[in-house]
Design a protein that fits this description.
The chain contains 8 helices and no strands. By secondary structure, the protein is mainly α. The chain is globular and about 60 Å long. The termini are far apart.
Length: 281
């Protein structure tokens, strides 16, 4: 009987030297990451809903008229619109880890700053920066899903992420209007809901790394994700003019044009309508 020259299979570890590392792989890491995206989207909607829910209480206190509130809402949406393209470029250039850090710091600091508003100017400034930061959540979430999910699971990833918006819309009236505001008042309410984002950010910085650099993703999951990624044949980013020649682009623009104004109308004005017209608390 001859001796076999074959060596036992090697165990691959996440490290440069091939030696075992202290950090074991986390099974199904992509699902933990999409869970974080769900939570931050939920927080995003709680923060933005807080303005409409609390303005019925603090608006008269600081002398905000309905006309002024309309201007403030328009300014928030202007900042949100401008930030869509700016934040998208930020995430593409620097990645989702830094991108979410910048977005969270801007929007949560702005949400907390609402606790110190004294009139139209300070209210408008805080709302502008809130919109500027919050818009980054959407391109950031889409980038994370594209990076961490194979193509066949991306629809599910997008569904989970967008579910955070619906959950935030459900949680906000209960948390802000029914619990925080009656107990601690509107100023402390803004501080607390804004602080939620900073708690999330601490967890995000501990857990998230790009797929190619993450020390705790198993080789099996990494291969599964990479093998399910579409083949990219165009390296250069498409120009704006080329995008505008696509029917899909106009389909998305038309859908957003029809849906978004109605959605923001409800978010910003429904609590005021219920109080002023229906005399609801």
């Amino acid at each position: 009987m001859g001796c076999s020259n074959s060596s036992p299979p090697k165990i691959l570890y996440e490290g440069n030297s091939g030696a075992p590392t202290k950090n074991a792989a986390i099974a199904g890491l992509r699902w933990w990451i999409i869970g974080l995206i769900f939570l931050v989207t939920c927080i995003n909607y709680i923060d933005r809903s807080s303005i409409g829910l609390l303005v019925t209480h603090f608006g008269p206190y600081i002398g905000i008229t309905s006309r002024q509130y309309g201007y403030i809402g328009a300014l928030l949406l202007l900042a949100y619109t401008l930030s869509q393209s700016i934040s998208g470029r930020l995430y593409d250039r620097f990645g989702a880890r830094l991108g979410f850090t910048v977005s969270i710091v801007i929007w949560c600091a702005a949400a907390m700053a609402h606790s110190a508003i004294t009139g139209f100017t300070s209210f408008a400034a805080c709302s502008f920066f809130l919109g500027l930061g919050e818009a980054g959540n959407w391109p950031g979430a889409a980038k994370v899903i594209a990076e961490w999910f194979p193509q066949k699971e991306r629809a599910l990833g997008m569904a989970i992420f967008n579910g955070g918006a619906s959950m935030g819309g459900v949680v906000a009236p209960l948390l802000v209007a029914r619990f925080l505001d009656p107990v601690v008042g509107w100023r402390i309410s803004f501080l607390l809901v804004g602080a939620l984002g900073f708690v999330w950010l601490a967890v995000w910085l501990m857990i998230y790394r790009p797929l190619s650099q993450h020390p705790r993703v198993s080789q099996q999951e990494r291969n599964y994700i990479l093998e399910g990624q579409p083949v990219v044949t165009q390296l250069a980013a498409p120009s704006l003019s080329s995008l505008l020649r696509l029917r899909q682009t106009w389909g998305i623009l038309l859908a957003r044009l029809l849906v978004d104004p109605i959605w923001w109308l409800y978010m910003l004005w429904l609590p005021t309508y219920l109080k002023d017209v229906r005399h609801s608390a």
